């Protein structure tokens, strides 16, 4: 089975539709599947519910889809750094399901593992728990969280072989493995594609069984959110 597609647009062709639930990997601007997000924008699909730790920034990452009003609902844990997100949410134009960061990761992991729900103490007694089932275990109250099983997952990895086995680079791994595992169809953009069998099996972070489509993006932008520099001491 050939998993490699000639472009991000081709990789999304036939699998993205209006009203879907999507998961998108990344944390801040690290590990963002930027080529796939651009192709998703260009596809024109709308009324999307998107699971992602955050929503990029204005004009980059998922921020582009907010600008074009293609996202109806965000399931996220952090929504700072994005003025358009703030504007739409406060105006009642964007639905938001706040989810604690660890809970969000576990909801995706559970979806990929076939676990329909789990109990956690995180969020008990807060708005996070409103309307959710709670149970007592060993004298403590736990809230039940449902797993997330997106229709499509968009991920970013460093390298892949032709079978879809993935290697992530440092912190760019972040939410990507969990998002990719959870998706009914997972599309991953990578910076390099090598022959199957090239990788040491112990170096593979996510096996290709979870990956349905691959697209090469050899020169991603790789933005950073804030650049901090230190002035050299005088005379140095």
From TrEMBL:
GO molecular function: transferase activity
Keywords (A to Z) from UniProt: Transferase
Record keyword Transit peptide present: no
InterPro entries, sorted: 3-oxoacid_CoA-transf_A, CoA_trans_fam_I, CoA_transf_BS, NagB/RpiA_transferase-like
Pfam family name, one: CoA_trans
Protein's UniProt keywords contain Transferase: yes
Domain of life (superkingdom): Bacteria
Matches recorded under PANTHER family: ACETATE COA-TRANSFERASE SUBUNIT ALPHA, KETOACID-COENZYME A TRANSFERASE
Family membership: Belongs to the 3-oxoacid CoA-transferase subunit A family.
Protein name: CoA transferase subunit A
């Amino acid at each position: 089975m050939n998993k490699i597609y000639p472009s991000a647009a081709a990789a999304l062709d036939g699998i993205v539709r209006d009203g879907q639930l999507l998961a998108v990997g990344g944390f801040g601007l690290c590990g963002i599947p930027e080529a796939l997000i651009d192709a998703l924008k260009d596809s024109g699909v709308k009324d999307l519910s998107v699971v992602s730790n955050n929503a990029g920034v204005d004009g980059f990452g998922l921020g582009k889809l907010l600008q074009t009003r293609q996202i109806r609902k965000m399931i996220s844990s952090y929504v700072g750094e994005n003025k358009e997100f703030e504007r739409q949410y406060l105006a009642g134009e964007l639905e938001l399901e706040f989810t604690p960061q660890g809970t969000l990761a576990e909801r995706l992991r559970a979806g990929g593992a076939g676990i329909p729900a789990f109990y956690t103490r995180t969020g008990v007694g807060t708005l996070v728990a409103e309307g959710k089932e709670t149970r007592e275990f060993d004298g403590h109250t736990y809230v039940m969280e449902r797993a997330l099983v997106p229709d499509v997952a968009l991920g970013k990895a460093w390298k892949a072989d032709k079978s879809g086995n993935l290697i992530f680079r440092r912190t760019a791994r972040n939410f990507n493995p969990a998002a990719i595992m959870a998706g009914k169809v997972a599309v991953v953009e990578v910076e390099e594609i090598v022959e199957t069998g090239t990788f040491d099996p112990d170096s593979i972070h996510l096996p290709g069984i979870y990956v349905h489509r691959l697209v090469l993006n050899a020169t991603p932008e790789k933005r950073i959110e804030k650049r901090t520099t230190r002035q050299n001491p005088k005379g140095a």
